[in-house]
Amino acid sequence: MSVDGWNTVLVLGGIRSGKSEFAESLVTDAPVVRYVATAPEGDPEDTEWATRLAAHRARRPGSWTTEETTEDPRRLADVLASAEPNETLLVDDLGGWVTVLLDPDYQPADDVATIAELAEAIRTCSARVVLVSPEVGLSLVPTTPLGRAFTDALGAANRSVADACDAVVLVVAGQPVWLKPAASATVPAALGSTAAPATLDSTAAPASTAVPAAAGSATAPAIPGSLADAEPTPEVQLPDVLTHTPPVAPNQEPGNPWAAPTMALPMVATGLVIQPGMELPMPDEYAGPQAVDRLATLDVPGAGLGVLDRVVGFAAATQGTVTPQAWGSVRVLLLHGDHAGGASAGTVAGESARRAAQARAGRGALARLAAESGASLQVVDTPAAAPMEDQPALSLDQVESALRYGWRLAEQAADAGVQLLVLGACGAGTEAAAAAVLAATAGAEPPAVLGRVITDSGEIDDAAWMVRCAAVRDALHRTRRSSRGAKDILAELGGGDVAVASGVLLGATARRVPVLLDGPVGLAAGMVSRDLAGQARHWCLLADHGGHPAVRLAADVLGLTPLLDLRMDLGEGANALVALPLLRSVLALAAALPVHPSLGGDEDPDPDADEPDHLDETLDESDFAEPEPAGPGPASTGADEQPASGWRAG
Fold first, then answer.
1. Closest CA to 562 of 195, 219, 310, 241
2. Which end of the chain is more exposed for a tag (fewer CB within 10 A), N or C?
3. What whole-number distance in Å separates Cα of residue 407 and Cα of residue 486?
4. Pick from 212, 211, 215, 185: which is nearest to 200 by CA?
5. Catalytic residue among 572, 603, 611, 617
6. pTM over 0.90
7. Please, what is the Cα angle at 40 between 37 and 43, to 5 degrees?
8. Would the CA dihedral through 18, 24, 25, 27 be positive or negative?
9. If you compute the radius of gyration of the chain from its CA atoms, what whole number of angstroms results?
10. Is 572 a catalytic residue?
11. Is residue 224 reached through a cis peptide bond, with omega within 30 degrees of 0 on the bond before it?
C-alpha cells in the first residue's frame, strides 16, 4: 500500500459522502488489517444507530481484526505506537473518538494535550495507517455550547492529524479529491496500488502524446501509471483531442484549415481503485419507459419510429428526462494497440499504425465520418499485447494502469461536456483477442466467434483464420487453471486495447456518459466491465453488429439489441458514426413533434401560417398546366406559392 516513504493518510468527508467505503478500498490488498473502532455503542433503544454500526461491521472482511478504543480515548495513541511494521491500521473514525473524548465520564481532561499525543503517535507509527474523520467545518456554527465544543475539538483534531499525515484526501459525493501529497515524493493513483506514482501538479507543462509500452518490452515507455522501472516516471499526458472539419468537395474553394488540436488535461491523482463489485450509477429506470410511452401520444403518421423507439428510451434513461435531446457534443475514442503472435495472422505489418496516423491527420474513413458528424476524435495508443498462446498478454500492473488510463479518458470527456462517447479500435489481432475474452467469459467456442479473415485484396484467407483459431485455443489451454476474474482475463487474453476500453466504459458509467459501441473490442470490454461493475452495460448502445459473430454473441449476453444491420466493414467505430446522424434525427424528431390533436394537442401549431382559400373552387385545365420556367432570381420556398401542393382533401 505504501510507496515512496509515505504511510499515513487522513480521509475526510461529510455524512454519507462515501469516506468510509473509500478508506476501506485503500486497504483492500493489505495482508494484515486491524480495524480500530472508536464510535460508542450509543443508546440501546436507538435502532437506527445500531443499524449503521452493523452495516459497518458487515463490510469488513473476515480476515480483518477489530479493536475497540471507546473505553479510553487516550488508548488510540497507544494502539498506534505499538503497531507492527507489517500491519495496516484503519481508524474509523475521529468523530467518534472526539465524542468519547468530550464525554463527561472522562473529564476533567486536557483535550489539546490528548490530540497532540495522537498526532505525535501518527508521526512515529511504524505501521501503515488510514484514518477517517468527518468534515464538519463547512457547516453552520452550532447554536448550543456542546455542539460548538464538539466542532471546535474535531476541527482541531483534523488539523493536527492532517499535519501529521503524509497525505490527506477529501471525499465529496463519493468522489475523492487529494488535498495533500507526500512532502518529498509523488503520490500514487491509489493506496495499495503497485502503479508508479503520478504528480499532483496540475500546472505542469503538457507533454506529448503517450506511446504505451509493449508487453515484455524493456525499452519502450510505459503508459501512465505503469511500473516500467523502479524510478518515478514523469507525468504522461492524455492524447490530444482532434477536431477535424469535413473535407472540401472537388472543384470547391477550401474552407477553414484543420482546427489545431486542443491540449490534453493534466493527470491528477484521484485515489481511484478499480475492483470487482463497484457500485456505479444506473440510468433512470422510469424516464426510459415513460419516453417510449410518450411517443404513442405524438402526432406521428403510420406506425411511428419502429425499432428506433429504443434510441429514445435509451437517451431518456441516460439523460434522466422523458424528452431527451439529440446528442450535441460527441467524442470518438480510437484505441490503437496490436496483438502479437497468431492473433494477428493475415494482417499486414504496420497497417494499424498507418490507420491511426491517418486518423490523427484527419484522413481515412473514421476521421472523415467523425468530421461530417461534428465529433471530436481522440487517438489513444494502448500497450501492445504479447502472444497470448505463449504468455500473458499484459502484466497485472499494466492492466491496472490501462484501466485507470481509460477511466481518465472518460473523465476528461465528461469534464469537456461530451454527451456521447463512440468507442472504436484499430489494431492487429483485435478480433482474436475479443474471441478469447468471449471464450473465457461466456464459454464460446473460438471458431464460432472468429470472423473470416479478409485480405487487403478482398480475398478470404482461411489459413490465417485457422492460425488465429489455434492461437486462441492454445491461450485458453494455457490458462485453463488460471483465475477467470476480470483483471486476470485482461492480463492473460485481452490485452491493452480491451483493458483501456474497459476503463473507458467504467469511467463513462461513473460520470453518466452513454457509450455507442461498435466492434469486437468494445463488446469484449463490455463483457469484462460487467464483472467489475454490472451497471456499465446499461450505459451502452449498440448501433450495428456489423455481421461480426463475436459482436452478435457478446451483444446477446449483455442484452444489447443492435438497431441496424448495415454490413459495412470500414473499421471498428465507422458503423456507429454512419448511424449517428440517424439516431440524432430520431431524437430531434421525438423532442419536437406535438401531441396528436385527438389527445388534446394543438391541431395547428402555427396559427400564422397561410391557409389556402381555394378549396371549394372549381378546377379548370389551367390548374393542371405545366408551371412557367423559373426566372433568374432565387427560387421561392414559401408554402403559399406552390399552387398544386397547397390544397388537401376535406
1. 310
2. C
3. 16
4. 185
5. 572
6. no
7. 145
8. positive
9. 30
10. yes
11. no
